[in-house]
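Case study.
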Amino acid sequence: MTSRDKILAAVKANQPDLRPLPEVVIPVSHADLIQKYTEVASGIGAKVYEVESVSQIKSILADHFDMSKRKVTTLADFADFAETDILQLDPHALEDVELAILKAELGVAENSALWVAEQHLGQRVVPFICQHLAILVEREKILPTMHQAYEYIGERDYGYAAFIAGPSKTADIEQSLVLGAHGPRSLSVFIV
Amino acid sequence: MKVGLFIPCYVDQFYPKAGIATLELLEKLGVQVEFPPKQTCCGQPMANSGFSHLTHDIDELFVKSFEKYDYVVVPSGSCALHLKEHLHSTKNPAAAERLRARTYELVEFLTDVLKVSSLRARFPHKVGVHQSCHGLRGLKLSQMSELVAPKFSKPEQLLSYVEGIELVELTRKDECCGFGGTFCVAEEAVSAKMGKDRVSDHVQNGAEYITGADLSCLMHMEGILNRQKSKVKVLHIAEILNSFEG
Amino acid sequence: MGSNAKTAGTLDHADLSDIFNRDEPRVNWHDETLWFVRTKRDRAAHSLPEWELLRETASGIKHNVLSNLHNYLQQFEEKAIANGVQVHWAADAKEHNEIVLSILKKHKITQMVKSKSMLTEECHLNEYLQQNGVGVIDSDLGERIVQLAEEPPSHIVLPCIHKKKEEIGDLFHVHLGTEAGESNPQVLTEAARQHLRDTFLTRKVSLTGVNFAVAETGEFVVCTNEGNADMGSHLADVHIACMGIEKIIPERKHLSFFLRLLARSATGQPITTYSSHFKKPRPGQEMHIVLVDNGRTTQLGREDFRNSLKCIRCGACMNTCPVYRRSGGHSYHNAIAGPIGSILAPNLDMKKYADLPFASTLCGSCSNVCPVKIDIHDQLYKWRQVLVKEGHVSPVKAVGMKAMAFTFSMPRFFAFAGKAGRSLMRLFPFAVNNKLNPWFKEREMPAPPQESFREWYSKNRK
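After joint prediction, the assembly is written out as follows.
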C-alpha cells in the first residue's frame, strides 16, 4: 500500500459525518470606498495618488525615484518611460530593477490589497525583486471586501497571482516595523 | 423558592465570612436558604487535574445533598461552572441533570433569577473588579474583551447599586490571575508571576480593595498582596454587596 | 507530572518556565511585547462588526473540510497534477524529509532556500538535510535569526520574539559582519536583506510552506509580509511546497474568509503584504507539493480533538495566553508552542508532551481569539483526562489526588481534616509532596479563621 492509499484510507475511516458548507451573506457597505482604500493603504505604508492621466503618473514617479536607474513595466502606456521587453528574460536578470510599474485588476478597500495576476506581471518575480513598486488600479475596480474580490476573480485561470498590500515589511526584531524586507521598499498606488 | 447554599471547600475552611455574607445577602432578599451539612466539594480540583474519574463519589454526595432544592447557589464562579458542565450521577441521573441547570453562581443568581435592581449597601472605597476566567468566559458574567459583542458586566451592575463605591479601570480588564487550581503549585513560577502582574494592575490603578466572584483567584492574589505587605485587601463580592459601612 | 518528565531526561514546561522566570524584567518585556500584538489584534477585530460571523463561518467551512477531507484531497491532487504540479504523499515526518531530499538529489542540489514552514519544523527537516549534506538557509528574517542562533523558533508567526535587538545585533555582527553594538532594527533588517538577496539569487531550489490549498482549483496560497516565499520561488528552478493534509479548503471563494481572519488575528494587519496564489509552475520550472499526514489522520479520528486540525496557524492563542507570555515559546519544547501546540503535541507523543495540557490555567482566552473557533481550553481539559487515564501523570500526583478525592467524598472526614489543621497543605495533599511548598515561595497562606463556615452555621442557624 502506498502512503497515498494509506493516508486516504485513514482519512476516510476517521473523518466525521459530512457537514454541509455554511451558506452566509456577509453584510457589506459600498460607501466611501476610495477614502477607505486610501486610509488603509496609507496606514500600512503605501502612498496613494488619485490621478487623471498617465503623464501625471510619470511626473510623480520622476519626482520620487531615481530616473537614471532601471525601470520596467508591462504597460504599453509606459513604453516611453520604462523597459517593456522583459517577458523572455531570465528572472535573475531583473535583480537591478529600481522601479516596476504594473497594473492591478482590482483593489480591496478593507485592506488595500491589489490583485495582480501573472498575465500583467511579465515575470512573476517583478513585483518582488524591484526596489520600488508602482501599481495602477481603476477607480471602479476598488471593491469593498475580499468577498467581492473573489467574486470578481471567479473561476478565471492563472498560473500565479497575488494580493499585494503595501511595501514588503517585517517586524521580526522586537515588533519594530521596518519597511523593505526582501521585496520593494515602497509601494505607490495610482487610482486612475 | 428553596435554595441550597453550596459553600466551596476552601471558602468553608478559609473564608467563612464570604459564606456568611452570601447567606445573609440571600436572606435579606427574602430567599429561603439552607446549608446542607454533608456537602464537601464540587470535584473540580480533581477533574481539572485530569482525575475526573475519581469524582464519582463526590458527585453522588453532591446530588444527594442538594436534590431537594429548587436552586443551588454558589459564591464561586469556578465551582458553579464545574457543576453545570460536569455534575453526573449514576444513582440519580435525572436529579443531576436538573441540578446542572439549576446551579447558579451568586452574581448571576442575583441578576438573572432574583433580578435584583437595587441593594441597601454602602462601601465608600476604591475597588478593582477581578473578572475570574471561569465566571467570565465560562458563565459569561461579563462580556469578554476578545469578542466583538456588546459590553455588559453582571458583577459591575450589582456593584453599581452600592453607595459610595468607586470602581477603578484596569489596564488589562480581564486577564487571568494565574491561580488555575493545581496550576498554582504545579506551575509555581508562572502562576506567581501572573498573580503579581494582576495585583499590580489593581494597585497601580488605585484600588484599595480587589473583589470578584471567585475566592480562589482572590486567595491567590491575597497571598501575593500579603507577601508584599500591601495594604490592599481582597473581598468576595458578597461581602461588599452585604456591607453598609457608615 | 514533573518527576515523570525528568526521569525521561528532559525538562518539562514547569521547569523551563521556572528558568525563564529567573529574569523578571525580561519576562515583563516578553509579556508586554506579545500583549501589544494582542491589542493590535483586538483593534483589527473590533473594526469589523461582522467579525464573529466570519469566525463562525470559517469554523464551519473547516468543519466541512474535516468531514469531506477524503474527497477534497483527491480533488486537490487531480487538479494540481492537471496544473503541471508533481504531488507527493508522506505518511510521516521521515517520509516527508526523504521526499524533499530525493527531489534535491535528483537535481544535484546541496543548497536550498526555505521560507517559513512550521511543518518542516515539526518534521525537523533542516537537521535531516544538514546530516545529508544539504545546506538550508531560512529566508524569513525571524527564522534566519533563530537559525543563526542555533535555536528553534519560539512562536509560529514571530519566530524570534524571545530575542532582544541587542542579541540579534551580536549575532549579525558575528555572522553578517554588521558593526559591533549595532542594534537598530532598521539597520539589522537592511543587513539581512542584502545577505538574503544573494541567497535568493543563487539557490536553485526553494521550499515554502502552504497556508491554504484549494481543492476546487489545485492552487495553494502562501502568505508572507517580507516577500521571501515569492523571492525564493520565482527565482528557483524547483519550488517544493510542503503542507499538512488539513490545509485544504473547498473552493477559491472561501479564501476570502480565511484571508480576512488570518492576518488580523495574527498581527492585527488587515492582510499580509503578500497573499500569493501558486497554481502552475512557471515555464521551465518544476513545482512539487508534498502532502503530509504525520499524525493528522490519528487526530482526525479523535472526536474530542479533531477540531484542532482547523488551525490556520495565526498564533493569536499564543499572544493572548497569559502563560505563554510569561513562560516563552521554548518552554513548550515542541515545534508549535502555546495553547494550540499543547493540544496538537500529545497526539504525536503522549509521554513526551504529557506536561503541556497542564501548562494552562484553562482561562479560555485562546478559544475566544481563535479565528476558526477551536475549543482549545476545553481540549486542554480533555487531554488531561486522557493523559491521566493512559498513565502519563506522575505517581506522586496521582496518590495526592486520590487522597483528596477520598477526603471530599467523606463529609465527616472532610470536616475533621479541616478542624485538625486548617491549612492548604492539609486540604490539598498533593502540595505536601513537594520538598518546598510551592505556594509559599511567593505567596502567604490564607490566615486560618477561628471557625469554618459550617461551624458558624451550626451555631447560628439551626
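Observations recorded in class. Chain A has five helices and eleven strands. Chain A has one domain: 31-191. We will return to this complex in the next lecture.
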